[in-house]
Amino acid sequence: MAGTVKTMKFSGRETSVLRAIDFATGTLGAEVLVKTHIDAFDALDILNSLVDAGYIESNPAPPDQEPIKLKDFYHTRFEVNPAYAHELKKTFIRS
C-alpha cells in the first residue's frame, strides 16, 4: 500500500500563526504576537498544538515534550518542520 497523504486543514487562527512564522529562519513567539494580534495565551495554545502535531518545532525545545510555558514563549523560536515545509507552502498558496 502506498503512503497516505495527510490532508492539511487549519483554522483561520492556525493559518495566521503559521503564516507569521518565517519558513527560512523561524520566528520568536513575541514576533508571532505582533504579526497576528492574537492573545498570548491563545497563540501559545495554537503553537503548542502545532508542535504536538509535528508541523512546527520550537527552539529551545522544552524538556520531555512538555508544552511551552508562557514565561518561555516570548523568547522561543518557532520553526516550520522541514518535513512539512513544502506541503504547508502549497496549502497557503491554495487558500
List keywords for this structure.
globular; mainly alpha; three-stranded antiparallel β-sheet; 95 residues; 3 strands; Arc Repressor Mutant, subunit A; disordered N terminus; single chain
And the CATH topology?
Answer: Arc Repressor Mutant, subunit A
CATH H level, superfamily name: Winged helix-like DNA-binding domain superfamily/Winged helix DNA-binding domain
Tell me how many strands there are.
Answer: 3
What is the CATH architecture term? Orthogonal Bundle
What percent of the residues sit in helical stretches (DSSP H or I)?
Answer: 40-55%
Largest sheet: 3 strands, antiparallel
Number of helices: 5
**CATH top level label:** Mainly Alpha
Low-pLDDT residue intervals, each spanning 5 or more residues: 1-5
Question: How does this structure look, described?
Answer:
The chain has helices spanning 12-20, 29-36, 40-53, 70-73, 82-94, and strands at 27-28, 56-59, 77-80. By secondary structure, it is mainly alpha-helical. It has a 3-stranded antiparallel sheet. Helix 1 packs across helix 2 (29-36). The longest helix is centred in the middle third of the chain and has 14 residues, at 40-53.
Brief summary of the model shown:
The protein is mainly alpha-helical and 95 residues long. Helix content is 51%, strand content 11%.
SSE topology:
Blueprint: H1 12-20, E1 27-28, H2 29-36, H3 40-53, E2 56-59, H4 70-73, E3 77-80, H5 82-94
Antiparallel strand pairs: 1-3, 2-3
